[in-house]
Amino acid sequence: xGLTIHIIRDLPDGRFVMEEPPYxxxxxxxxxxxxxxxxxxxxGATYLxxxxxxxxxxxxxxxxxxxxxxxxxxxxxxxxxxxxLGGTTQETRQHYVEGDLSTMIFMTHCAGxxxxxxxxxxx
Length: 123
Description:
Elements: E1 2-10, E2 16-18, E3 27-31, H1 32-35, H2 38-42, E4 55-58, H3 63-75, H4 77-84, H5 90-114, E5 118-122
Antiparallel strand pairs: 1-2, 1-3, 1-5, 4-5
């Protein structure tokens, strides 16, 4: 199942509102299965495996740590692709993983720098 990423802004009562995405882009990333796979956790990820609960909410104060997690996983994109994706060439699978992580990095960067917010990834 595909996942959607939204920029969110926290409200004082603990709820949140979805903000307009940068450049009008509503973007998504692959699947829960990819980001909750054992190799992702073995690489030290703590945020993305939480997608197994149905969604991942990154609060404004967590954006830096989440960006570091995504950057670490990006370095290991080939390993993640080899362990999880089949049916195409390794180069295509790696490009897919790199694209997903780049989208997460971009949306998180925009949330923190332009909206003072966080992100919600859900599917």
